[in-house]
């Protein structure tokens, strides 16, 4: 709760009501969005690749 972003965004595999912290962001007037999922594009996979290189 110390950090209060205006926007919280997750991938399309998350429903807004499942996003951790959504209630805090919305309570302070911020927006919570779930973007369209794009097959083959994954921040988790990008981070894994960076760690392995």
Backbone CA Rg: 13 Å
- Please indicate the count of domains: 1
Low-confidence stretches: none
**Portion of residues in helices?**
25-40%
Strand order of the largest sheet: 1-2
Shape type: globular
Series of secondary-structure elements, N-terminal to C-terminal: EHEH
Largest sheet: 2 strands, parallel
What do you see in this structure?
It is a single chain. This protein has 53 residues and is an alpha+beta fold. The protein has helices at 22-27, 43-52; strands at residues 7-10, 31-34. It is built from 2 helices and 2 strands. The protein has one domain (7-52). The chain has a two-stranded parallel ribbon with strand order 1-2. It is globular and about 40 Å long. Helices cover 30% and strands 15% of the residues.
Brief overview, please?
The chain has 53 residues and is an alpha+beta fold. Helix content is 30%, strand content 15%. A two-stranded parallel ribbon has the order 1-2.
List the helices and strands and how they pair.
Blueprint: E1 7-10, H1 22-27, E2 31-34, H2 43-52
Parallel strand pairs: 1-2
From the structure above, extract its key features.
53 residues; alpha+beta; two-stranded parallel ribbon
